Queue: 4 jobs
Job 1
Amino acid sequence: MPSSLRDLLSSDGFRSLPPPPPAAARQPGSQHRPGAKRDPVTAPPRNRTPLRFLSCRSDSAVAIPSQEPIPNSNAGVYKPGRELERAIFALSRSRSLAECEAAVEVIARAWIAAAAGGGAAATTAISSAAVAEGLLEVLLASRDDAIAEIAMSLLADLVSHSENNRKAVLAADPNLETFFKLLRTRKLFLKAAVLLYLLRPRSKNLAALEWIPLVLRVLQHGDSRQRLFSVQCRPRSAAFYLLEQLLCKCDAEQSRKNARQVMAMRGLEMLIWRFEDGDERQACSAGGLIVACVRADEICAEFVVDRLKKASLVEILAGNRVRSRDCALSLLVELISRSRRTKVRGFLDELKNSGSINAMHVLLVYLQKAPAEQRPLAAAILLQIDLLLGDPLQHSVYREEAIDALMEAMDCGSGRKVQESCSKAILFLCSRFSGSGEASMEAWLLIKSGFNPIGVVFYPLDDDEEAEMEDWRKRFSSIFLRRRGERFSSSLSKCLASGIPSLARSCLVMVTWTSMSISASLKSPHLAVAWSPLVPALLDRLSRDRAMEERVLAAFSLRNIIQNHDLLLSRLLPLDRRSTALLRDLAEVTWAAKEVLLAVDPTNPQ
């Protein structure tokens, strides 16, 4: 126990309290009925009005009627009884701040004595919502740091021992004004942060006040362990929890505002430092908050890409903590998704060559050991590094392993989480995103096909970014020029024919995107073989029971496949009457359908 508390809670240090009034003199709100049995140390019921001390009150206000005070015992043995009853009554009912402060000392002494053994009655009497609310009111009104520390310590024990007490405190102070005041103090803000952490407030409790500066202060100074009676905790854990509420649990606009405030107050730098130099637990917490900032605001993404040491990401991916590794992978995905395409190559190059650890080997090991739902995204990152920074026409073990992992995830028998992750990985490989990180390749392809329905939002790129996108598309499409590309296209065609909507749509977007790279100049014998299984699946997507966007993408893909490769055109012929009728319908909304019809029957112009 800290020395200040020890001094205050010594037997000679207590201020005496007047005894409780006789039953006839008690207020009607006590609900005491004559003749009813009542525990002599049970707190009287109180009116559930929030915080009696919100308006400053004087010591003379509504004091408890006095009798002969019971003198303090100097024998060192505390016996719960009338003194504890008077203290609980004073804390629950008195409007005198001095009496309530004295009651806090008495109750704390009784609590410690009970904890030492043999004080079940005292423990039961003190462990009540009325006492918890009274302590909260003293914390708001008192200017005595020593009393505040005792009250916080006692309240921490009460809250940690009872969920009802936690709920009672949050109900009494839903906007956490008491803790806002305590976090602004010079001496007690770290202990106050620990107590607030025990309360587990939600984002709705933090909406009314400006918490970001106070929480960042706790994060900066919160490494030393704080003790509140039986509770021990590092305040930085409280800072991480509160930042999670402020950055992840608010609505999008408030999260964006909070993220920008964190960055403006150098909080993002603190989080990056914790991620790079802290232990694995800190790295996991800080990494999750960095991801939240990056998702909330694109400016944060640029800041993190420039400031973060890429070697730290690799080291965490190579570590032993599963949560930390998964967090590092999520951060990698978010940073690549939200970076300008002209910066992605440099970012991946720095990731690959920074530090003493082979980043591609680390990713490969992670890919082999990761849970099934994490593997598709790990494979997508490994594939990007390999194709962007290496020679796509040369054999690569990393590339083969990544493609195998993606094909395994495309299996229609995989679980829902794996399918969702695979869908995200496929769109991630398509590599066209909005400023908020949303995949926008489908919108771009629809506009390229001449179809632009209401609600489709397109985010144009500048010329340099479009050039980088074109280079990446050609590099990725090179996988179809090798034998493994035949298996990959077969997996894509099975996904298109499956009944899994999100995965099938993502695969359709990838097929349409890569089909734009088919050229008559590509003489690989594997090309026609690789794309042939996709033709029937694309024809099936023309059906009227499909979404119009899917039908347009299928027509655009067929146009690209047959336009520049005679062998693939021969696989389409002869076109059946049903497909011809469907393409004629689509010819009214996209020029791609007209060109398919013209290619299969040049004598019958549409």
Note: The longest strand covers residues 226-228.
Job 2
Amino acid sequence: MLKSKMEENNWESILDDDFWKLYESNNSIMPVLKLSYDHLSFELRQCFAYCSLYAKNWRYDKDDLIELWMAQGFLDSQNEKQCLEDVGQQYVCVLLMRSFLQDVEMNEFGEIKYFKIHNLVHDLLQSVASSDYQLYNERRKMVATPMHVSFDCDSNCSLDLLNANRLRTMLGIQRLLEINPSSLLDFKCLRSLNLSESLNIKDLPNSVGKMKHLRYLNLSHCENLTSLPNSVSNLVNLQTLKLMGCYTLRFSIDCVPKLVSLRHLHINNCKAFECGMPIGLEKLNALQSLSDFRVGNDIDKERKYAKLNELKEFNLRHELSIENLNLVREVEEESKDVNLKVKKNLKSLRLDWGRATESRNSDSLQLLEKLCPHPSLKQLTVEDYPGLRFPGWLSSLTNLVDLKLDGCGNCQYLPSLEALVSLKTLCIWNMDDLEYICYNKGCSSLHKTSFFPSLKDMNFSDCENFRGWQREADVNNVIDNEMHRSLPPFPCLSYIIIQDCPNLSSMPTFSLVERLVLKNCSTKPLLDTVKASISGSSATQDSCPSLSKLEYLGFQDMDVEALPEEWMRNLTSLKNLSIGGLSSLVSMFRHMRHLPAELEQVTFQGINNLNPWSVDEGFSTQCQAVQCLHSLQTINILFSENPRTLPDWICDLQSLQFIVIHNCQNLESLPDGLQRLVNLQSLQLNGDLLLLQRCERGRGSEWPKISHIPSIWINGYQI
């Protein structure tokens, strides 16, 4: 409150105020909170009072709340160039700075997404909001003259109690057990109406067009909503229309361009727009956010759809998904004026060609070149792009935080990406023809941490021919080992998933990884990282041994024998180990003897050779010698074949608290030693009905072995 007060007398006036006496006499913080509230501007006070329409501990969606404020006319811009949405953002920041908001959640771009309000602050809101704001629940009776009302519980409350000429906001309608949409039309002065998740609404009556003051209409996730009347086009003051998740909704989308005040159009998964967008969208001069733009198929001459160039004038913000790009016929004509490169407020862009692509490779490349976004873009997703390569602008998005490429099956190589200095997440999926990512040594030689300096998460999946990073000049004659030695290490990569990439061999080392998942891929990247730690070539500033920060390791369908036996010796932080797809665990246990960490959880998946579990004494002795299992708390076993018995060595793991075993339908008995596991809290078995009978409480033959376990689940039943 005093942060902006620079004069001494302002501070003294607060110090001498009588409210301190109220604080001391009542021993309550409320007078202090009230003082902070009173020093807010009038605009901020009414915006904050609006938050009283939600229950305590509510998770406020910042953008949705700003749209509601805007609908009530609470946002006033002193600058013609400043958007009302930016004013709302400033209001949220001021309230946060004044400590009225808490538990802030940020999105992947570092922007406020959600927040909460402390219960004491919520009590303050209830006291200052007066009767104009009514949160109806079982503890509060409905007053007759609120301007803004929200329903917080399932009830049969009658809307007849409300003053139709005074009401401006109606939220939480889905909580009314019985509601007739026609009854809502009596409230012709409404500015905000939220009908989201109302499963009993199938359509809206034609008279909805008479609600001409309406500025905010939320019909999202009304799964049974099938139609909207053409009279919706009369809602010329509507600013926000939300139709997300309306899977059965069909209506004449040609009415949308007539909503000339529309600023936010959310149509994710809305059936009505699946074939394309209405012609005339460029008339929506105020449009700020458009969740989806679907290119239409003009084969049907009786129905025409909007072209890409209708996006030309929109100063879009937040997210945009452009789908069905394979249906673009005249690339030059339809895309030359899209102007994505000037939309600086757009944070996330998704470009999807569709799986049943019809585009030629040359046309696809030309189209993608035309769809170059502004350099401020934070997130880019490209799906099912059929081109052979990507345009050069991909390497110039230096503010990009998240890059996902999925199903671009014809692409053979990617341009250099290490210049993306802000990139935190890189995902490449389902790119069968991809062979390499170009490496520009000149770009990464400026300083040691210039090679993907921000990259945290990396996922390569289903890229059968992908070999890794290579210098463009050496594509045809490079030797993998030489290429690998020329690559700098990843300086801060913490989460890696590599699955079904059997040829990936040339990859930077990842000494600081914390979570590592390897499935059906070469062990060479891991082996190179292990060797780098031995040679010291990947030493970090704090001299942290390679892989010493690894906490989770997933290992499935891998050639364990290709790794040196002592490769796990630096895994001092490992807590969770998942192993699968091995014919025998004997070799893996031989490696685990060198593991210095004390594991907390182990998962065995797809065990094929069951003999060691029951008859191989050497294996049992070896298992007992593995020190890393002595502190084990959880063990999960997913058998690929149905065993008749469980391994006795499990009963030697005295720290076990949870045992989960799947695919044991032929299990005849449980180990006698289970009684020794005094710390065991839960046992879950997926067996047959006979097993359930044998373990029946107090009566089954196996019950004495497990009677000490607090929680027992067999075949999904608790006994």
Note: The first helix runs from residue 8 to 15.
Job 3
Amino acid sequence: MDLEECKSLVELPPLRFHNVHDGKLDLSGCHNLIIVSKMYGNIEFIDLTWTAIKELHSSIGSLKNLHELDLSHCEHLKKLPSSICYSESLQVLKMRRCVSIDKFPELPKNIKELDLSETSIRQINSSSFECMPYLESLYMKKCTMLKSLPTTICKLKSLEKLSFRNCSKLKSFSEISEPMENLEELYLDGTLIDEVPQSIWKLKSLEKLSFGNCSKLKSFPEIPEPMENLKYLYLNGTLIDEVPQPIEYLPKITILDLSECENLKAIPVSNIYNMPNISCVYIEEYHKDQDWAVLSDVWISETLQQSKYFSCCECFFLYTIHNILMGKALQDRIFVTKEGEALYDPRVNFCYPGNKIPQWFAYKSMGFALPVDSAPSTWIGDESFLGIVICLVVDLGNFNDLTITCEIHCLTSLDKSHVFRSCLEITQKHTQCDTDRVFILYLTRDDIYKGKIASFKFNIKYYNRVPIQHGIGSQRVVYAEEFGTIKECGIRSIYKKDAEEFGTIHEEPHNGKRTKI
């Protein structure tokens, strides 16, 4: 039964449901609905979002087939009837932004998904978590009155996802006193937590762990045993001053977000090599010692095909990142193509704010096209040749996403023309900088052994996410598309000797001091 957005509906009379189509009662957006009377029958899903109800009828507990109840944005609802504990089939309960709810509700033990985000709950009784053995997801985002959690949270044995994101008064998360073997995602962003539990490593199934913008957090505890499943670790906006150690105990880490960590002193370059699944690094500046890179803004994120994406501010030099990549540990992953592997897109790329092609690039041109004449003929048959590095100066604008396409025009051994394309999609992390960016892209030799290279052509297409209001309280996203401007382009050949020159310096930095790592 669909009564969505019936704005004149104030009271719903007693209803008996029998063989209801799709088993759903939709009253969402009935802004003036205050009273819902007695209900009977085989209803499976009730949607009361954005209504003005103050209470639910006790008959809700007698709906034996009720599987999901959505009360989101029922801002006048103060409590649930005690009879809901007898709802034998209820598995999903959503109460997001029920701002008048100030106590953790008593619920049936079969509940699996519970959303109490943006409610006014002040505390959670110890017994509450002991009565939900099948709960898989608990969301309490932006519960700004919540100050503490009971230690019985470890009783939630089936829990897979747990979020207290932006609970701005929450000061602590209890030690892991009992195994939580199914917990995969834990979000504690934007809380007042000043200490990560020493026993955090006991969460053996954890894949995502976030303490982003925990402004009081000063350190991450030493990890005594490997966290073998952890892939995403967010520590951005905290006061930590070093990378979690030992980093080898995070063997699957893919995203490590350390952006806006103002106290971060340094990251050993060796740490980069000990994170084999890391894919992107945002780096700002150096430490004076040769063995350290000072990172006051580091962000690591995943891109397609396990590629690595390094984005740095203009005080970080192309040569340092390139030298890191040319180390033997990473060089093989960048340039060696496994048998049967199809790879026609850049495996590695990085960018930084800037408006000119570095002198390091042998072939340069203004605009989007680059003729290379006969020089690359030396690539063919040279076993030491690994691939090429492409450099583009791009007017980035304010767009969120972009696609860079590289067309390589060549002649085959029979002097027939051939064109193949390499495509790179990037989602930008917005920073306060000029709109011009320098993009560096690495292509393996297997991608360009098509014949004698005649020229390169590049284009860039931008996509901006534009939210469009779609109904009450919801929106959809469309993408604005526009072709961008490539101001300059350049290429350089890469040979095995680059690995032997790891740590060398190619150019004087702007401050006149020579730097290497």
Note: The first strand starts at residue 11 and ends at 12.
Job 4
Amino acid sequence: MPDKEMTADSGQVETFTFDREIAQLINLFGHMFYTNQELFLREMLYYISEVLDKIVYGSGTHLTRFDLKKELEIKIIPNKKDRTLTFIDNGYGMTKEDLVENLGRSAKLEAKEFIEKIQPGADLFMVSDYELSFYTAYVVADKVTVVTKHKDDKQYVWEASSGSSFTIRPDNGEPLSRGTKIILHMKEEFIDYLEPPKIKKVVKRYSHVITYTIKLLVEKKRDRELDGGGEELPATDTEEKEYSKYKIEEIGDEDDDDLEEKMKWKKMKETHAIEGESNRTKPLWARNPDEITVNQYKELYKVLTNDCEDYMGLKHISVDGPLGFQAVLFIPKRLRYHATRTNKNPGVKLFVRRVFVMDTWDSFLPEYLNFVKGVIDSEDLSGTITCEMLNRNRTRMAIRQILVDKCLDLFDEIAENEESFNKFYSEYSVDLKNGIHEDPMNRARLSNLLRFHTSFTGENRCSFKDYVGRMKENQKYIYYIIGESREHIINSESVESVLQRGLEIIYLTAALDEYTMQAIQEFNGIQLMSVCQEGLVLPLTEEEEKKIQEDKIKFEKLCRVMKKILDEKVEKVVISNRLVGSPCCITTPQDEWTLNMERVMNSRRLLGKKHLEINPDDSIIEKFRQKVEVDEDDKTVRDLVLLMFETAIMASDLLLENPQANISRTHRMIQFALGLEVYMEESEVQMDERTLDDTYDSDDDMDDSF
């Protein structure tokens, strides 16, 4: 419960304790410095504009629920006499409960994350959350007072110095019709921010994205002349009209004897308030790009994103005619959410005729481009449109198509510089690959942006275009392989013949690559071909083609016997044209998952249809053929075929269905190699989850086998 005390003029005062993280944040800001100390003013304007944004966004199509007859605006009032800088908005205002939660507690998680990121003594450049922007006031103020009026509650005063507590009391002072007044009691070293010219300069610099009117209220003094008798000279018509409502105050208390002399043509001083609009220039996105400096773009980006780094690339878009809109889109240097891409935070602000409507990312950009940040300002959309209406709106669909095209143009521009594009690709390759699936209309353009390692490039990456430029004269396909790592891929049996022929292979190691290559299928009319699936087509000579046909006939019986031994473990056993130094390998049908995809999706279990390809030039396979020609029921061949098949499974980085059976077979092979008696209980080994009935009768049987 809060502590309570009474004051004679303001009623009951309640004292509340800040959440620990908020108190730490205030203390941090109180002892931190900005390289550019003026940025606190930007943060305050950003905080207030976000509050006003929520009014418009929250009102949606029911604007009558909140009185928006008055233009939403922000007023700034410097007071050098009292050493205060005041910000006034005419937004919702806050109830007592809002003051406790919004200014004392609700941002504790954001505060904790921010504190953890900031090193002691670090320079503060950008706050990560608008709710924390309020507390940057403590950089320049030793006390902050908030006066607020909500239509459903009394007017209250919230007040806190740098410490662990704040107070709230009813306010009996000058009433507010609605909204909030934030008063910064400035530290001595920051009183130069009470000078109107400096405030106006800073506001103009940082208000590009703020569409609400910002008014600077200042006191001005005017000289008025008196005639020789001490009477005020008549004002001109203009002066009378402009200043008649302000009272003229005399200066000093002169003695009567000296009054007549001192009053001759004496200038009198008067003080009055004037309003000056500080951000009535066009928003940056509505201006001619040739008139905008790089620093202005950088500042707009930081205001939009709260990113402490500069952007990687930008595209300023202006479309005239029936589909009129302006937009500025930015590519951040770094991805700001987890690589699973589950983040749904809006990256693009939607304005309609300079009025903020909503934060959005999926209405104007597809999901794979949700890393793009920026602002869109439409001349044709309705300011009262809902998200559901927006998704069905034809204007929105047309704008979306243009924005996607412009984003791809921007990516192409970044790709012109290899170093810059390498950084871009390292951050956003997953998003580009997602786009291959999500955006069939732009699949060809996105394919041009893909980069990968190959058997020719070493540590460098290349594009499809680079690969095609190096293709051999008789090469008809783009070859690729997908695996867990490049090291695993290079040692794969599937690449042996392709590499021996000097053909280039694309190495892919991401799980998403499987879907990506299936979606692309071809590049510029050249078909993509996986080297680890059935039907591998290689550029062969007539002699090689003739030999393959002869081998098929020669090893036909062996393939049939091996299929019988392996039974349902494989769909078929065939002669391979991809093997050089390995006796066999496992492949998959074209319409099935690759071995790599099976590894990823099924915890490396062998579940789909498989083919076993054998190398007709390998001595082991030739010996098998010879034994089968003599006796196709040879028991030794059965055990060795199963062992070789299981070895191929492990070489593919998959898991065995029955590891114990493989262990028993391996032990028997060791016993045989050492000349020991080979004996096996019927219960010791299972093959394909059934008992292996065959045992070796004697060492002589084995000796006769090999």
Note: The chain has a mean pLDDT of 78.
